[in-house]
Amino acid sequence: MSEPVTIAIDGPAASGKGTLARRLAAHFGLPHLDTGLTYRAVGHALMQVGLPLDNEDLAVEVAEHIDLGALDRDVLSAHEIGEAASRVAVMPRVRAALVDAQRRFASSGKGAVLDGRDIGTVVLPGATAKLYVTASPEVRARRRHEEINCNGGEAKYDDILADLRRRDERDMSRADSPLKPADDAHLIDTTEMDIEAAFRTALDFIEKAVAARN
Ligand code: DC
To answer: In the chain, what are the domains?
Structure first.
């Protein structure tokens, strides 16, 4: 691959897009950015100082100074931080600052894999290949439930399902950069697919997109 390859992966929470993004990044030897962590970092910062999540000025301040090298997945992946992230993600000024940082990451070298909600539609509309990964809410809630319990946490399946539905609704209906597939995205429904099958499907599509470009 001579020209930089950029891969945009979008989809709702627990759809499998993160695992797929990491696998693809390793396969192509590209840097990977989980953009959800950038919104989580902003939500987490507000939670830590005990400020309401609608404090837009502070949220923007944190977003403008985000250090992509310091995003701690272990801390930020907590389920409740996902809810906080979704709430700060409705603020256009927060989005503008984070999108800026995400674009800088994507254009800094030989290409990149970015996953999130608006990568194919807003952050990298000219990406080499775009994927939209989805799965039924029940399957996503089951995956998240297993993940939390495997890590020693306690959570009720019904609560997780309700949280995911609320988060989907907020992410899909916000005015600025709502979650939706880009017109030219390849859809992958992982409801009845394991990660290996999703990876093969994605790889096939990306290889064709790269070949078509060359
Ligand atoms: O992918 P995740 O669960 O870590 O994302 C957490 C929240 O961040 C998600 O509910 C909405 C927001 N988000 C966003 O608005 N745009 C992105 N590109 C990534 C995440």
So the answer is: 1-31+112-214 (3.40.50.300), 34-107 (no CATH)
- Ligand 1, residue 37: give the atom nearest the CA: 4
167 CB near ligand 1 (under 6 Å): yes
Question: In one letter, which amino acid is 162?
Answer: A
Query: 5-10 and 129-134: which strand pairing?
Result: parallel
Q: How confident is the model at residue 2 (pLDDT cuts 50, 70, 90)?
A: low
Q: Tell me how many degrees the CA angle 69-160-164 measures, rounded to the nearest 5.
A: 65
pLDDT at 30: 97
Q: 40 Cβ partners below 8 Å, 6+ apart?
A: 71, 76, 77, 81, 82, 84, 85
pTM here is: 0.96
